[in-house]
From TrEMBL:
It comes from the Bacteria. The keyword DNA-binding applies. PANTHER family: HTH-TYPE TRANSCRIPTIONAL REGULATORY PROTEIN GABR (PTHR46577). GO terms for molecular function: catalytic activity; DNA binding; DNA-binding transcription factor activity; pyridoxal phosphate binding. The lineage of its organism: Bacteria, Bacillati, Bacillota, Clostridia, Lachnospirales. In the C-terminal section; belongs to the class-I pyridoxal-phosphate-dependent aminotransferase family. Pfam families: Aminotran_1_2 (PF00155), GntR (PF00392). Gene3D superfamilies: Aspartate Aminotransferase, domain 1, Type I PLP-dependent aspartate aminotransferase-like (Major domain), Winged helix-like DNA-binding domain superfamily/Winged helix DNA-binding domain. InterPro entries: Aminotransferase_I/II_large, HTH_trans_reg/aminotransferase, PyrdxlP-dep_Trfase, PyrdxlP-dep_Trfase_major, PyrdxlP-dep_Trfase_small, Tscrpt_reg_HTH_GntR, WH-like_DNA-bd_sf, WH_DNA-bd_sf. This is GntR family transcriptional regulator. Keywords: DNA-binding, Pyridoxal phosphate, Transcription, Transcription regulation. Residues 22-90 form the HTH gntR-type domain.
Length: 466
């Protein structure tokens, strides 16, 4: 029986004891997940202390701890040292881009849209490909891409200092598709992958879906710290590592070549399977050598065209060590059957015609102009000359608010750092502000003005706390 009476005791969550079947920790985790995903427990809700919940349910503390751990691994909970356990902000939120743009009543600065105004160049090339390609582009042939399409990929990868054989290149339906294929084919449920403390939100979701554990590794202004990674390798069995070295999403840091070399040495030493996501490498005028250059036998390198050329084209180039070739081909065939030839052929034509390079030049100029606008509002933070987003510290007085909801009420959409969080939350919270998403520079200026004024405002009755 419970030690204390809970009849009139306020608790943020009181699960039904009668619904706890065996094993109880899993039943409790399922009840908690249902209440989170249904919206019954809103984002940032603080859960009862584990000892208190154990007393209420008349269960061992270890049972509560295991249930909380299961939900944390699924991305439903996050913890703050000394403060407790909370419902994740994006647990029950659809993070997809809105289906109908006209329905949005706010300026989009949350989801990173890659300057879609330049898609007209891709459209023109796709029309040319359609006119001459015929029905050969519409069948099942060449699931890994035609020789022409993979030769174009090889040519494109040379811009990023990747010298790869055609047999070690696959064409996937975007970086997200490549990540899903790699996790499905090269990892197993329960495997552990090292990541930055804040990392790509969709990678977190993919890992949760596949029951792969993400292990946060602390970093500095250049990203993941090699000595911290090695300490984790000594203490536990890590199976892989995921890195976004150039204009990291969400923090924006850029990894130096010496840092890549140091991390590569650890990858080789502990035989880690590395995933290098170079989604923003095109923004660097002179990128350093990729991680794959220093650990070629352990690294799968992803170069997506979604941000650099056209988001709707859904093309990424995946390179891999020869020992993974059969598994990756099997994964691509069973997940995709093939990447649509029309898209792959269009990408090839964009590359060989020089249009892809032209689009990148235009996007870099626009990104630079938008970064200058951002400096007018946040001069101490906006230091990168380019970049599609800004990693902005959130003032402490807003730490107890649902800031995303608050910002949307003021007319802008932003992303809170908890969306990208792996492990326990920092004392400092952040916002990721997508500078590339507003349709025009004028709209960006308006959105940044709203954000600056909101951050400078005092707390009042219009602010709602969690």
């Amino acid at each position: 029986m419970p030690v204390n009476s809970f009849d009139d005791y306020p608790m943020s969550w009181k699960p039904e004891k009668e619904q706890l079947t065996s094993p109880k920790y899993r039943a409790l985790a399922d009840l908690l997940a249902d209440d989170i995903l249904s919206g019954k427990l809103p984002p940032h809700t603080k859960l009862p202390p584990q000892r208190e919940l154990a007393d209420y349910l008349d269960l061992n503390l270890s049972t509560i701890t295991r249930a909380f751990q299961l939900c944390t691994q699924k991305g439903l909970l996050y913890g703050i040292t000394g403060r407790g356990t909370f419902v994740s902000p994006n647990a029950a939120i659809d993070i997809a881009i809105a289906d109908e743009k006209e329905e949005a009543s706010y300026i989009e600065m949350g989801i990173i849209k890659p300057l879609d105004a330049f898609n007209t160049e891709t459209y023109a090339v796709m029309e040319q490909v359609l006119q001459r390609g015929g029905t050969a582009l519409l069948d099942y042939s060449y699931p890994m891409g035609t020789p022409y399409q993979r030769a174009a990929a090889q040519k494109w990868l040379e811009h990023f200092s990747m010298d790869v054989s055609l047999s070690n290149i696959a064409i996937t339906a975007g970086a997200q598709n490549a990540l899903a294929i790699l996790l499905l084919t090269l990892f197993r449920p329960g495997d552990k992958i090292a990541t930055d403390h804040y990392t790509y939100a969709n990678f977190i979701e993919l890992a949760n879906m596949m029951q792969i554990r993400l292990i946060p590794i602390s970093g500095d202004a250049e990203g993941m710290l090699p000595d911290v990674l090695e300490n984790h390798c000594r203490l536990q069995q890590l199976n892989g590592i995921y890195l976004v070295p150039n204009y990291h999403n969400p923090t924006g840091h850029i990894m130096s070549q010496s840092r890549k070399e140091a991390l590569a040495a650890i990858i080789r030493k502990y035989a880690l399977l590395a995933i290098e996501d170079d989604i923003y490498g095109f923004l660097l005028e002179k990128p350093s050598l990729p991680l794959a250059h220093f650990a070629p036998d352990y690294t799968c390198y992803i170069c997506s065209l979604s941000k650099s050329i056209c988001s709707g084209l859904r093309i990424a180039y995946l390179t891999f060590p020869t020992r993974f070739a059969a598994d990756i081909r099997r994964g691509i065939y069973n997940v995709n059957v093939k990447t649509p030839s029309l898209n792959s052929e269009t990408a090839g034509e964009l590359i060989y015609s020089g249009t892809a390079k032209k689009i990148i030049g235009q996007k870099r100029m626009e990104a630079a102009a938008r970064s200058e606008i951002c400096k007018d509002f946040f001069p101490e933070i906006a230091k990168n000359p380019l970049g599609f987003s800004l990693w902005l510290p959130l003032p402490e007085r807003f730490h107890e608010t649902d800031f995303e909801h608050l910002a949307q009420k003021r007319g802008i959409s932003v992303c809170h750092s908890h969306r990208f969080l792996v492990g326990e939350a920092d004392v400092q919270q952040y916002l990721r502000i997508a500078l590339s998403s507003p349709d025009t520079k004028e709209e960006l200026t308006k959105g940044l003005s709203i954000l600056r004024d909101l951050l400078a405002s005092d707390m009042d009755e219009n602010f709602f706390c969690i």
